[in-house]
Protein 1
Amino acid sequence: MDQAMNFIWSAALYVNLAIWSVIGFLCWIPLLFRSTAALSAAIMVSTLTQADTSHLRTSYENAVNFYSRGFQTIFNILGPQTRHLQQSAGNAPRTAIQWDRVLVEFLWSSLFWATFLFGVWRLFS
């Protein structure tokens, strides 16, 4: 029975890694593009107005590390080190999912890729 559960956990791990490698990448590139553009604009504004831009580092680091954090999250949930843990009956605190933020990011990614693909299609047709 232990080998069967090990196989199921491994299969779940690899399926989730495969899905994240595609979905995460498709969301990460537009996020990175937007964050880089915002950082460039903020640098220009900061240079002209001498405004404080120290808060931008955290935002940009979050965008850069988004893709790798997805893999870390999968390993934290499904990795070999968590397989031996007992399932607690709802004792872990839950955070509310910000569905509006998820929707905005999905729409932004869709718009980014549609614009990109339309541009490539127009370039080569």
Protein 2
Amino acid sequence: MATMTPIITATPGDPPTYSVAMAETFSWIPIQNEVRPLYAQASYITNLKELSSYFEEETGNLLSFNNHSINVNRGWEMDNTMRPMISIQNGSADAESLIEIVEYQIGNNNATQSTLMYEWYEGPLTINGAAVPAWNSLGDIQYRIYQDTHSNGGNTFSAPNGTYMRHSGIIIGRNPEDDEGPVLLKGGSSRNMLTLCIRRLDSNTHLDVWFAFTCKIM
């Protein structure tokens, strides 16, 4: 019967002679036989519990904006029609520029007594109704807050072909604190746009909402 004899001559506990290539070099084991040398490669079983991974979060500049001072003593007024509330895009001409919505918060003035539905769309929307507001700039972040029902009846929208709903959810009181944007915002010629739309589900009575966004420019 053939016998296998390991030829390992150093171990990780012997730093002067151990190298990264040793696992490959000394994993081949000669098999003794009467004809010619044969070699087999050994596998080293690792205890996965002893492994640890380190992930470094990509650096970037954090910038934030909200609507607390846009209207006096009221927020963005909504009703039971799904309306565009805010669009966000990357204004950089650099195709490698990325913007991530790392957190957004939405709350209303009726607390948990009201139920809201929100939808995220990626791509251009056809905006109807009141005049479309201009873009605001914050670094490379461009955002547009649409007119609410208190302002000239508000804006409405339709989604053309090629624009998709990327995420939707329900808010009772406020959304979860760890909500993030559904996709990254790209700069350059491949620029995309995200639009957050919202409506009230439980009543046609107008309701004020406040929002805050924190974005990372990478």
Protein 3
Amino acid sequence: MFEGVQKQYFKRTRSRGYDLFFAKDNDAAREQAKCFLFAGDGLEQYGERRVCILKDQGFVLKYSKPSRWNVRLRNGLRLKRSGKNCLANEFSNLAKLVKSELSPNVHGYVQKKRFGLLFEELLVVEYFANSRTISERIQADGDDPEAVLVRVLQLFSKMLSTGFVHLDPHPGNILITADGELKFVDFEGCCFDIPEDAFCLAFCLGRLYRFWFKEFLSEARYDAAVSTFMLHEYPAETTSGYFYSVYAAFKYSDTSRKQCYQYFSKVRARETFIARCVSTYKK
């Protein structure tokens, strides 16, 4: 089911009909997952989705139990081309970033199937104590939005140099840890076969503003910060090509997760979208 780098760090075991994939040196995470799933107090209380934060143990448990058969089939077979997300995708994505400083450590993943359909799944990831999302740092703690934005722009640059694109880069999915480091969370949507930097940055910067940095900073100040960053870090992508047209499209238009996934996974869809952006938005 999981190939490549995952096999280097994770061991598969079975227990009570569950498949467990856990880091080879992390018995504590595996036992915590078993306690959660086998407690006998009825997981029905959690509904389809549940996130449990175990601060003392340093774990975040993300639980999912799809109710619709088509979702259970799609996620059980991991039909990723659909553009839909699931915890199996997040485990696979985080396993590829096991050595990255930009993501939480993934401790393990559990799934159970019935009649070939996914019945339930559980993901165990690292908990960052005393961390805050950038939304919380700006709204509750009073951090300067422009200063936070400059740090996020550098985070996007590090992301590209690491070789991935987070497909849901909004302020609630970016943490500032107690040590002051910026990290992404929620990796159900992620791309590793990334296109040109210009497209990736236009996507991230446009989406970041629309969902929901526009609540914190005026468009003029946001655009000025983006222009300064692009001219300094990516001058070739800024002075020629389609960057500003695609940036404007993601900033002003609603694009679904499915559409975004298609733009990153299918060359023809991306080229058609870029052409439409260039004809619609001109710098």
